[in-house]
Amino acid sequence: TLTEEEQIATLVPSHPSQRGSVTTWTLSNDNPHNTKILDTTDHNKTIYLVKPDFNGKYTMTNMYRMKDDGTEGDIFGFIEWHELLPDQISFNGAKKVRKGSYFSNGGSFAHSFKDEQGRKYTWKGIGGGLTPSLHCDDNFNRKVPIAQFTRSRLDHSVDPPAVIPAHIFVTPRAMEVKDLLLFTFLVLEKGRRSKETSEGNRMSSWRAEAPGVLPNEGTARASNPGVGPGVKRVE
């Protein structure tokens, strides 16, 4: 497993015009659908809030930009959960669509999409125990990711063992589409985790407590791995 410094090193853009400091986002909760996104490089400022809701019919994952005063801003994206049919998603107020119509298949564990300017991006490593990373066609070196996600893990090198939270490393190029980056990641990460659970407990293992959710629909929380007696969390 690469250290945080080693992961950041792999994201240093090859082209001089794209070089700059890599921003580190930290997830406050191991469940990416019920978490704050903190900018670790800006005094742990909360920049996004992701939380569950209920619209009277479906469980939702709503994504908020945070205002400078720390209050919730606008919803810039959402996922509408469906049991049998594909989830419906929307970004920046656009008409909601099925997840499958938003992304094109870029190969095994790869999903492509475009921004408003028509520039193409591909998330690679979504599934198969791989490291999710975002690539763009206009990057000087397409093999170098412009963003990368690292899952939370236990650090056994310290006593007591400490939980290192999940991070998203974001280059200056990825910051150009930071809302879209987070939106697409959350949509794909939900799909990945859903596939890793059995059909019988899929919704109950994923669904955080949300208003209006019936008990038989499940209200289990996703928890940080390894958290318990003798384990601490490190930011």
UniProtKB/TrEMBL annotation:
Q: Where is this region: Disordered?
A: 194-235
Q: From which source organism is this entry?
A: Tulasnella calospora MUT 4182
| Ranges where the DUF6593 domain occurs | 30-193
Q: What is this protein called?
A: DUF6593 domain-containing protein
Stored InterPro entries: DUF6593
